[in-house]
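User: structure tokens for this one?
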Amino acid sequence: MAELTVNGKRVQFEAEADTPLLWVLREQLSLTGTKYGCGVAQCGACTVHVDGAPVRSCVMPASALTSAQKITTIEGLAPNASHPLQKAWDALDVPQCGFCQSGMLMAAAALLKAKPKPTDADIDAAMTNICRCGTYNRVRAAIHLAAGQVQRKQIPIVIDGGQA
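Assistant:
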């Protein structure tokens, strides 16, 4: 048995030494908000925080972590989806298919913790997650909204080539 601290709770699991953290979270701890996308740390759907830093959990062996390290998944980001980013995501209808969004939110949360008022360049550098629906403009707008840099009414939303 091994032990990790996930979303503020000590949890035990049993897995082979090379089992990625992603599979421990999803299959053994039933934390299915973290998604499997590519399996090679390219897409970011599996992003979680380890001691506050964004980590691609599909390539992080669970055995490389200690119980002293704090792992946060999308389920542990905020109770009742109350994080400013989750509220901004909802207000701006960021997701389309939604598959990549938990990883996007975790990457964005780490960005805002490091840079509370990020520039577009900061966002572009930090948000390396891939969205196959192409919601990048809405992601950027939601990050600015969550950072308090703009008001909801200042963000134009484009629908079918025109503004809403």
